[in-house]
Amino acid sequence: MRLRIGARKSRLAQTQADWVAKELKNKNPKLDISIVGITTQGDRDKTTSLQMMGGKGVFVKEIEDALFRGEIDVAVHSLKDMPYQLPAGLVLGPIPVREDPREALVTRAGQTLKDLPPDSRIGTSSPRRQAQVQFHYPGKFRFEHLRGNVESRLKKLKAGNFEAIIIAVAGLKRLKLDMGITQVLEISEMMPAPCQGCLGVELKENNFDCLKLLESIKDISSDAAGRAERRFLRRLEGNCLLPVAACTEVKGQK
What we know:
It is built from nine helices and ten strands. It is an alpha/beta fold.
């Protein structure tokens, strides 16, 4: 069977697609897999804030269009980038094992969040991250707009645009850049975005052959947690304009 996986062209998105491909190949050795890189609106415009661009959908629409046209069989996204409501005819497939959902602080001088000097510039465009830092350290820091892929964010930090940035641990780990983390922020310090660390594999609702393949890499706990957090987001009608956070812990037997 041939399987075409669609993903954004960024190194992180391609790394995530490669990981899914390898996991599927391990479970289904005869599978012929190719990866198709797709440029989204969010990739073309790296400066405008997501709030101004219309939200998370700017990273998925072109990939979903390719699904509808039959150019790809499945799409691999960071699940936190997927709107809680999918277009009619598309579904979220089984969720594979979740990477670390926590947030990372990366600083130029090696300070923790507590030790950063007053008026330090923190690079993040996330209302959720800003709100939680403000809660713990009211009025202490300045927040500067920061968008772009993981590598460009780190370059801007190194260039002196900020004293610190806040970024998902999962992306750094997947790119093997986690050695640069100054401080991992625990859930009690900063609640992550719903589904942070989860991969979302999207497909047509009537593609039962692909659905069966994806079941082979499903992680029961990650799937339950990811779907619970998406239901929470849907109930709140959450979007990138709201500082919504959630992290589910699965307890008991699988």
